[in-house]
Predict the 3D structure of the following.
Amino acid sequence: MSKTVDYKELGLVNSRDLFRKAVAGGYAIPAYNFNNLEQLQAIIIACAETRSPVIVQVSKGARNYANATMLRYMAMGAVEMAREMGVELPIVLHLDHGDSFELCKSCIDSGFSSVMIDGSHLSYAENVALTRRVVEYAHPRDVTVEGELGVLAGIEDEVVAEESTYTQPEEVQDFVEKTGVDSLAISIGTSHGAFKFKLKEGESAPPLRFDILAEIEKRIPGFPIVLHGASSVVPAYVELINQYGGQLDGAVGVSEDQLRRAAKSAVCKINIDSDGRLAMTAKVREFLTNNPAEFDPRKYLGAARSELVELIKHKNEAVLGSAQKA
Ligand code: G3H
Ligand code: 13P
Ligand code: ZN
């Protein structure tokens, strides 16, 4: 068991102030997943260069992959790195899709400033009880909590949901009041991963259910809403991957127009993982094919990291509107 650490000692912030400003300002805070050094470096470089507040998030699987103690020092390093770039960047270290009280507690104790407890697959009453329990542990430690109502299709940390169910607007006010959560993830048509919609030839992705979002906003005005499964599955990366030996036929995501519209509403946190994975994979494949004699990981991971920097800068500036808000 590693020692207990307060996130403030690491130079991190919770999400409360960031969300308040984002809702008022009509933009969204980016939440980028990371598992390794190059991803975290790219996130920090891009967010420092665009002066964007940022949530760096890890799933249960990512935490197991990177090691909990290592993650704490990586987060500390991220804060220092941004400072050395001359930017006092607000950085939130967030648990993505926490699936138990124990995992949330362990993350809070090891320096996370924010956690998600995802009870969306439970019954309503069980979701309320579990989420409330996490809030009761988190709030005295000034850690913010994200809950979820409604189920997204796709993979949520080893739990695979075949069917999505939209968030029921009638439930949100009661859920927020009973649990005390600081933000709420909703289901309005997005899903996790690179295959968000099954489209026939010539069809385009259906629009998100902004009518449901409007109903939710009406019931909890100004309350911070979170959009998961928000990768655009950038076609250029899918093409590059397929060109260099990959097989991602039929990969499709949420259009940037839809995300821009969401960011202007009460959606104040937009989760992006798959796009980063695609960008890095595309560049690694391209690099290794074009440089068959190279075997230095710094070369191919360096190429992947540079592309991720460009992708994140683009998201912050042109999609989420978070650039220059730090
Ligand atoms: O929502 C899921 C995230 O993309 C994390 O995925 O569980 O494979 O790390 P992961
Ligand atoms: P994507 O798979 O669309 O990137 O969604 C990531 C996510 O919601 C992480 O919680
Ligand atoms: Zn998610």
Remarks:
- Residues 297-320 form the longest helix (24 residues).
- The beta strands are 29-33, 54-58, 91-98, 114-117, 144-149, 154-156, 159-161, 183-186, 225-227, 267-272.
